[in-house]
Amino acid sequence: MEKFAFIIHPLDVKDVARKFPFTRYLPERVVENAFRLLPPVKVSHISGVRTPHGEAEGWFVACPLTARQMLALPREFVLQRIIQAGKVAEKLGAGVVGLGAFTSVVGDAGITVAKNLNIAVTTGNSYTVATAIEGTRQAARLMGYDLRRIHVVVLGATGSIGKVCARLLAGDVGKMTLVARDRSRLESVASQILYESGLAVRVTSDVKQAVRTAEVVIAVTSAVDTIIGPEDLMPGAVVCDVSRPRNVSRQVAEQRDDVLVIEGGVVEVPGPVEFNFNFGFPPRTAYACMSETMLLALEGRYENFSLGRDITIRQVTEISALAKKHGFKLAGFRSFERAVQPEEIARIKARASRRQEALKAELPRVAP
């Protein structure tokens, strides 16, 4: 049987409290300082990953640092803890280990971790891109959009993930704007897209202006702070936030019930899989990055994959083909760590339609 592991960590102190309820009564800094002293540990055994082409088992390994600590503590310290978690995976017998959440963001996106382990490493970013694009297409369709007739904005379009997302969508959209800080690199990406798809895209460094008229936004920047707030989006906007840290402020979820923010797709894992750990997903479903790790194990491909800042269309296409072969498929959406059901999307669509009509009705009164 093939074997894999996946490194997880608490996003914040509230996640720690799920495992250790007493910590909810303690100051956050006290909890964080205490947990940073703990070594990485195995938290659960994963069984039942079974397809007509193979079977695998694995483990969740916890790196006890919160997202805030991952970004604030010295990079060398954080990388060493991630490597220690990888060593736990090695001892468990895993042939490949996936880097979850912020463990795939710190440093050079897995390259240093891979150099210090004797097993294969992946960030899972290739399948994350594939499901983000698929999820965006599905979400746009559920919101009533035809991609050929709407404005799509890609934030962080000069990065490896953003560039791949833009290139994959360019052949299907009517209007596209690429956003990043470096104008010359933006124009280079725009030229590549024009050559590949024939689509002439706009480029800008003004995030606010770009998203204001966008029906669909894909956010994949490396910004440390959020860059999209409640006031920035039009009613009915669909935002796929692939970035970690997030590009979209949580205030959007709290204040805008007429927009749809998704993290990408929820993947249905084939077989009677048991994760034996509650990470907030429906049964037998997982993040795309977890699923990429399982796919590589099922194929017996114990080789580094999706490392560094350069994700290629070839990698996205290849992992998508493996997912189809083994029966992994998109099963739903996530938004700010919770599942979003089709019924909720229908309500968002209805509210957006009402507000769009209200805005149109107000135009004659404010026009000069």
From TrEMBL:
The Quinate/shikimate 5-dehydrogenase/glutamyl-tRNA reductase domain, residue ranges: 141-257
Protein name, entry field: Shikimate dehydrogenase
Lineage: Bacteria, Bacillati, Bacillota, Clostridia, Eubacteriales
